[in-house]
Amino acid sequence: MDSSKDDSSNQEDSYSDVDEIEPKLKYVRMQNDIKGILVNDAASCIAVHPKFLCLGSHWGRIHVLDHQGNNIQSKTLQAHTVAVNQISIDHKGDYIASCSDDGKVYIYGLYTTDNNHNMSLGRLVKSIAIDPSYSKPGGSKKFITGDDKLVLYEKTFLSRMKLSVLCDAEGGVRSVAWMGQFVAWASDTGVRVYDLNSKCSLGLIKWTTSPPALPEHYRCNLRWTNSRTLLIGWVDTVRICQIRKRSTQETPGQNLAEFLIDPVSTFQVDFYISGIAPLDTQLVLLGCPKEPDDSGKSQRPTLHIVDPKYQDSQTICANYLTLRGYKEYSCNDYHLDCLPEENRFFIVSPKDIVIASLYDSDDRLEWLLSHGKFEAALEAVSLNDGRDCKRHTLINVGRVYLDHLLGTQQYEEAGKLCLKVLGRDKKLWEEEVYKFARVHQLRSISSYLPRGDVTLDPLIYEMVLYEYLKMDPDGFLQLVREWSPKLYTVAAVVNGVLEHLLMHNQKQNVLLEALAILYSHDGKYDKALAMYLKLRHKDVFQLIQRHQLWSSVYDMIEGLMDLDADRAIAMILDKDKVPSDLIVKKLQNNHRYLYLYLDALDKKDMKDCKGKYHGLLVRLYADYSRDKLLPLLRRSDNYPIQQALDICSQRQFYPEMVYLLGRIGNTSEALALMTRELGDMEAAIEFCQEHDDEELWNDLINYSLNKSENITFLLQKIGTYVDPRLMVQRINPSMEIPGLKKALIKMMCDYNLQVSVQEGCKKILSGDYFNLHERIVRSHQKGIFVDDDQMCGACHRKVIVRDPRNLVVFYCKHLFHEECLPDLENVENCVICNPGKDKFK
């Protein structure tokens, strides 16, 4: 703290962290009455109690103040004539004790004069410690002083004072600290701990090195953190010692002290230690630099938070303290006391008192924001969720960060941050959006604007769309696609697009597409469809299906086919929304599109128009897809055969002509086409076999007689269809026929096989005939047993099986009453299975 600063300021002073590491402590200069005290006097020591603090001065006065620096005593205690060396306060805060170089020891009760003392010892008294239980009723009143020896004073019977020399101190007692039954004091040889109950020393912690040249009577810093842990700060060395019980195994059979003191951590620092205090598991060290500055003056003191290890330590943070007059002071002029329960630390110099306390959530956030660490601040307030913060919230921290991002032109990051910070607060969103608008960066926030349950004023979305319209037409189109038309006034945006199109010629197609979407949002579907067709954009199909615009399709069939024929046909055929007659009429001048439509229509198998357009399809298949023509001719009867034959004749589609000639009975001409034009003997044989006409076989044989290879082929194939003699007798004997021998052998084998099969079939047929006749007669003569639930095949009455001779049963299991078959002798077959052969009444 700089002495040139206004002393009336009660704000946190700026302490520079050497490495800009986030500090753990904040600093406030003590104000109020302490200001006047230090103007006319100087602080020499301090003692802090949870209720108050006592400040000793160079003029021998003791000031009792609250923690804010206000006097709480009606008058100042003039305890000594020279500087107060040390002040000690009992546990309850009822009594204070002080000492000075004037040889006096002063015991003062704040609430009673009982047990007060004002003693003159006749020697320099450097240290004093009052019994922590001094104010306990009925207890002994004790205090300890330190000079060249350590002396215990105890009030006895009749208020007499008993003196006990506990130890001689080499170089004098430098400081004393009392906790419970243990007293620790420091001398030039080290630190000794004394057990008042056992009246014995627990051991000496020796200095490892001799102290360097220091100001007269360098003060060793002792502090108990609890009844068993002692902190020692000596020159530039820190030790943490622990009191533990001695085990019987350590010194069996010896009568030694019950407790031992052991160092648990020792480490060195690079400054002189002016004070030491606990902070949870860490330590707070008040340090004074060893070397002067360039002008030979003292440097600023420092406050360090360190994490102790066994033989080392880690510095958590270190802050330079700009105390008044620091250039004139040495390490012995500074003091540090604390309130461990509150983690508050009182740093004292002759002309200044500063209170350091842990940063709370608000303090930490303020530091992070002031040092530009916005992301860390935002993370901290998000994790805290406002539980410990009184001055900061996620929203105000986030808005500070937003202002910073906008100021540094980090617009994309600012847009992302809005989504995290502003939440569902409509008013905040609108306020922040206008900030983006002022710097023409609405595009950066457009992706994050609320569009769900919470929406903003339509003007906000329109502003964003207008900015995209002017600066990024592609982005404008994307927003029009993504955003619900409920967010903005569609008519206003349409007008804006039309005005822009009139003034600019860039990105015309992009804006026309956006305009088509806007028209559809506005219910002007005819304009939207016209726009899509003009752009040749396939979204027109989606628009038609979504809004059922089938009546609008009638006049744009060909345009839709131009855009995407397959998709247009699929849409038209879906649910039969558009009459097929209308489509055929609209496409009558565009045969290719008509072909595509009728082909898809035929595949759909619509009952109401099945085969209706097959006559038209014949010509279209002939023009665009011949492979589909013959299958159509075969499966359909719904086309003019002669017209189809003419179409095929014009194009010389011989397979199709063969089929059509066969259908109209002109088999001879069909066979001639197969043999002369197609040269397909295999198909010709199959054709003759299919029609089973002797004249066709003769025509085929006549055609083949002049071609030896055809003769060979026929001899191998027709043996099973016709009498081979018909062909063999007509072959020119002088004709050379390759493979004739093998062909004749195969022909004769096929013919013999055919004859054999026919004879076998005849025998089987004759046998079956006589067997069936015999069975009919046998069943008539002998009768058979049948089920009672069977019916007569003639009268349909239920058969009663009593005398089977009254029944006639055929091999097919049909049965009749004899009286139902009046001409029984002439009945050879079942009249149900063969109704045309035998009749009955």
Summarize the structure.
The chain is of the alpha+beta class and 841 residues long. 37% of the residues lie in helices and 21% in strands. The radius of gyration is 60 Å and the shape is elongated.
Low-confidence stretches: 1-19, 780-785, 837-841
Helix vs. strand class: alpha+beta
Strand content: 15-25%
| Annotation, overall tally of beta strands | 30
Helical content (DSSP H or I, runs of 4+): 25-40%
Quaternary class: single chain
Largest sheet: 4 strands, antiparallel
What's the end-to-end separation, in Å? 137 Å
Overall geometry comes to: elongated
Radius of gyration: 60 Å
Kindly list the characteristics that best describe this protein.
841 residues, alpha+beta, Herpes Virus-1, 4-stranded antiparallel sheet, 30 strands, disordered N terminus, disordered C terminus, cytoplasmic vesicle, zinc
